[in-house]
Amino acid sequence: MSAGESSGNDEKKYKGVRRRRWGKWVSEIRVPGTEERLWLGSYSTPEAAAVAHDIAFYCLRRPSSLAVLNFPSMLPPCVNTDMSPRSVQRAASDAGMAVDAQMVISNSSANNGIMEKDKDEIRGSWERSEGRDTEGLSISVEDYL
């Protein structure tokens, strides 16, 4: 099997995200101009790890195009690009945990028959609190930046 082929599962591959053997999704990123890596966290969902990577990538590298991000439309407008690598690590990790919490709650609610949402709709609305049926949970990446 070549590097570009999938292993038979239909999971989407996100930039900067990999899956551990035991099922957790992790993300890390290199600090530009150094050999240092920033550990961004371990998550239950690949989307959470991808959002953490997006925040860190944007803050550290300031890309000219948002198209290089996993979820370009989810980048909050108030992202501060003038942070130390450790501050970037914290913001990215917190954002990833917020997405993870929302995805896990949404998925568990759907599994219990309380709420049935399409996964794409959840991905697109995790940062909006309007119309959410998850017991008043309102988590946003902006809360951590």
Alpha-carbon Rg, integer? 16 Å
- Pattern of helices and strands: EEEHHH
**Poorly predicted runs of 5 or more residues:** 1-6, 114-119, 125-137
Percent of residues in beta strands = 5-15%
Tally the beta strands.
Answer: 3
Shape summary? globular
Largest sheet: 3 strands, antiparallel
* Widest sheet, order of strands: 1-2-3
How would you sum up this structure, described in words?
The protein has helices spanning about 45-60, 85-110, 120-125, and strands spanning about 15-20, 25-30, 35-45. It has about 140 residues and is α+β, with helices and mostly antiparallel strands. It has a three-stranded antiparallel β-sheet. The longest helix has 27 residues, at about 85-110. Mean pLDDT is about 75; it is low at about 1-5, about 115-120 and about 125-135.
Helix and strand topology:
Elements: E1 17-19, E2 25-30, E3 37-43, H1 46-61, H2 85-111, H3 119-125
Antiparallel strand pairs: 1-2, 2-3
Helix pairs in contact: 1-2
Task: Fill in the keyword field for this structure.
145 residues; alpha+beta
Quick recap:
The protein is α+β, with helices and mostly antiparallel strands and 145 residues long. It has helices at residues 46-61, 85-111, 119-125, and strands at residues 17-19, 25-30, 37-43. The protein is built from three helices and three strands.
